[in-house]
Amino acid sequence: MRSFIIITVLSALVACYGAAVLPSEEEMVTIIYDDKSPNGIIMSRADFSARSQGWVLLSEANDLIPAVEGQEQSIRMVYRAQRGVKINMLSVSARLSGIPEVNNTPLGRNYIDVKVTSRPGLGLNSTISVYRWD
């Protein structure tokens, strides 16, 4: 009986650890929205890093929202740059296992409103980044 309790406790600790560990770069994908891909293109973080030369980061938000069974989770980011600054690229990085739905206002303005929504029953672990061309 004692060994059964110890095994149960250890199993619970392993499950909690697995849920708490943040995903590595390899488990993340990035969705890019720019003038070449206005509907978004999915790429790895490594490919995005190679492609992002010449872009200037304006704003970034990192969010972690736990899953609720049967419910969607959402994050909203609103960013307004100074007058004359045009937002030319948006990137949303998320876990590969739950690529979210992304809705955003058009690029090319100094204002962007982004809403990222998970699939039902999944949480969100994402980074929303806003860029301008240098």
Automatic annotation (TrEMBL):
Underlying gene: LOC111350975
Key words, A-Z: Signal
Top-level taxonomic group: Eukaryota
Signal peptide positions (record): 1-19
Protein's UniProt name: Uncharacterized protein LOC111350975
Organism for this UniProt entry: Spodoptera litura (Asian cotton leafworm)
